[in-house]
Amino acid sequence: MRPPTIKDHDVRLYSTEVLERVWLTDRVFEIRLSKPSTFKFMAGQRIRLLHRAIRRDYSLITAPSDPTLALCLKKIESGEYSPILASAKPGTQLSFTGPLGYFTYRPSGRPTVFVATGTGIAPFLSMVRTGITGFTLLHGVHRATNLYYRDIFSRAARLYIPCLAAEAEETEDRESVFRGRVSHYLAEHLPSGNYDFYVCGRQEMIRDVTLMVDARFPSSLLYTEVFY
Ligand SMILES: Cc1cc2nc3c(=O)[nH]c(=O)nc-3n(C[C@H](O)[C@H](O)[C@H](O)COP(=O)(O)OP(=O)(O)OC[C@H]3O[C@@H](n4cnc5c(N)ncnc54)[C@H](O)[C@@H]3O)c2cc1C
Hints:
- The structure is a single chain.
- Strands 4-3-6-1-2-5 form a six-stranded antiparallel beta sheet. A six-stranded parallel beta sheet has the order 10-9-8-7-11-12, covered by helices on one side.
- 18% of the residues lie in helices and 34% in strands.
- It has two domains: 6-100, Translation factors (Elongation Factor Tu (Ef-tu), domain 3), CATH 2.40.30; 112-226, Rossmann fold.
- The chain is α/β, with parallel strands linked by helices.
- It has helices at 82-86, 122-129, 150-156, 182-188, 203-216; strands at residues 12-23, 28-34, 46-51, 54-59, 68-74, 93-100, 112-117, 136-141, 159-164, 178-179, 196-201, 221-226.
- The chain binds flavin-adenine dinucleotide.
- Flavin-adenine dinucleotide (FAD) binds next to strand 4 and strand 5.
- The site of flavin-adenine dinucleotide (FAD) has 21 residues, from strand 4 and strand 5.
């Protein structure tokens, strides 16, 4: 039987219920949702939560075969919607449309490099949970305590490089982290070659990485997902 493709999954309106909320740091949390029986998606895709006139997209972090759905969110203190989700109690009813997006893994002969900042790690978590291994992952965060899912990615990746903002405080594991931006790591340390880059997070980071890929890895492929 051929594997499912994005075209197989119709975008529809669904109802779901909050099952659980778990804080990963003081500002980042996971929210687990019931999975409507007819909802299907591919790892790397997202849903659009609907709340009155508000529409917000979130990448799924669970594998398509998991019995529930989950998201990884940063609570933006001044934000309109993420604080509502951050305080949503189990049993809260939500509506969403989906699945959305084309940020899915496409195997090729080239080495894969995943690049994320902050919660931009979310779609890669879903991919890893479907069994994808052997990639290089750069995760840009301010400090080491924000390396949520470090264990999962350390096990699945060929090379897992936490990139800590230069201004962050010193950490004890200086050996295993890169001090600087993900684009600086690409500029200074990734050997030249042809890669498949998957880049997710802040648009400024995606622009910097795109420029770096054009300059240093011009025959590579680049897939992007802009969060904000
Ligand atoms: C394709 C796509 C996938 C997304 N997936 C995720 C996801 O998996 N997890 C997630 O946390 N967010 C994700 N987002 C961002 C999310 O949709 C919301 O924009 C975010 O939750 C803020 O919504 P808000 O209503 O609280 O803030 P708003 O009132 O919309 O915005 C307040 C301010 O916060 C900024 N902002 C938005 N997101 C962030 C962030 N992560 N860090 C810092 N500043 C931010 C905005 O640029 C704006 O200036 C995704 C966005 C897109 C387009």
